[in-house]
Write a structure and sequence with these properties.
Largest sheet: 7 strands, mixed
Pfam family, one: Acetyltransf_1
Mean pLDDT: 95
Number of helices: 5
Strand order of the largest sheet: 1-2-3-4-5-9-6
Strand content: 35-45%
GO molecular function: acyltransferase activity, transferring groups other than amino-acyl groups
Shape: globular
Order of helices and strands: EHHEEEHEHEHEEE
Radius of gyration: 15 Å
Protein name: GNAT family N-acetyltransferase
Number of strands: 9
Keywords: Acyltransferase, Transferase
InterPro entries: Acyl_CoA_acyltransferase, GNAT_dom, YpeA/RimI_acetyltransf
Length: about 150
């Protein structure tokens, strides 16, 4: 079950930090976003954060699944929810960004129909104090993907 969360203190910060380790950045964008949790057996196992950006565009700024529940289709379920939410609210485009090191996420997003739009070079070097590694690869560039709805 996917539930909208209006009270920021009810959001699972531990899950949000899995996708974005900069707590100050996370707190800044969740305050401006529509935030949803995925609940299974009365336990929060996922989170997705949707932010209207440019006119007609909705961005998925954070999506995370509890590690114990990963690779079971829950991220796909949240992405499908976001796409439908964007369509139902009249958005023309949906976007998502991820690190160059996020191999599994890049594969999933493309399987879902997102296409690479551009690369924000040195994004993680410029915006994060600490180095981020995933899959033994340093996160340096932000890969931006989009889908026309």
């Amino acid at each position: 079950m996917i539930i909208k969360v209006d009270r920021l203190e009810e959001l699972p910060i531990d899950l949000l930090l899995l996708a974005d380790p900069a707590e100050e950045i996370v707190k800044e964008y969740i305050a401006r976003s529509n935030n949803y949790i995925l609940v299974k057996d009365e336990k929060t196992i996922g989170v997705i954060v949707l932010l209207p950006t440019r006119p007609g565009t909705l961005e998925i700024v954070n999506i995370a699944i509890d590690p114990k529940h990963q690779r079971k289709g829950y991220a796909k379920k949240l992405l499908e929810f976001a796409i439908n939410e964007a369509k139902n609210k009249g958005f023309k485009h949906i976007e998502i960004g991820t690190a160059n090191s996020s191999i599994n996420q890049l594969a999933l997003y493309q399987k879902m129909g997102f296409r690479i739009n551009y690369i924000d070079k040195d994004y993680f070097l410029k915006n994060y104090h600490d180095e981020i590694f995933e899959n033994d690869i340093q996160a340096i560039d932000m890969i931006r993907l989009y889908m026309d709805l």
